[in-house]
Amino acid sequence: MTDDEAPLGGRRPIEEGSVTQKVELSYGRYLHLDQILGAQHPVSGPDNHDELLFIIQHQTSELWLKLVLSELTFARRWIAADSIGPALKALARVKHVQHQLNEQWSVLATLTPSEYAGFRSRLGTSSGFQSWQYRAVEFILGNKSEAMVELFGHDPEAQEMLTSLMAQPTLYDEFLRYLSRRSYPVPDFVLGRDVTQPWSFVPELAEVLAPIYQTPADHWEAYETCEELVDVEDNFQLWRFRHLSTVRRTIGERSGTGGSAGIAFLRRALEQSFFPELYALRSELTL
Hints:
Distance between the termini: 71 Å
Order of helices and strands: HHHHHHHHHHHHHH
Shape: globular
């Protein structure tokens, strides 16, 4: 019997053409796996295997956040250039990444209070609260904070990135400018607002957005973009809730390692909205 005829469970041949010797660019070298797989350094010692889960959970989250930030940046650029199709594709990818991030909480939730206590005291003042990429995503979506920029004084590169994002229009700003270029009556004070400030609810936008929802077929690009933005915010809120739930089952009402209020802080975050007008108009629609 030849290798090709080996029964199920038998020896599997190497496919013809597979490279097994010296290569110009291998899978491991392309992905820098030596650096990635060597980047987990538990502080609690080799006998505590639970910390590896904690580290990998947060490292993979940061990788996904890097992709989310990239896609949102491109989406904003494409909306500014009136290229709605590519922007919607980028937002669709963001939503899929958000699903991955939300599902990861189920893995971290397997860490019980006693298991987390086995290394929590060794984490010092480090905290997910200090994730500059998470803050960058919030900034590009509209939740800007000068105080949050100051928080990263210990990390000049992160602070520079956040300072740059503070001065740039948000994704929502660019969408409203796009609507204005399409002759939607977006108020001038909205178009000329100080983009370094966090977005705050603008009731006048209800009249601008309502027709889009009353007759979607006549405003399809705008309508689809609005709903993509709502999807992104819904997923973000789900992420916040899963975060809160996981922290609650792991440490209860205790303060966070970085000095945050823990559950209380996470509850307040649930009240924040990136695109409040897109939710408010649903109560006002007369269809």
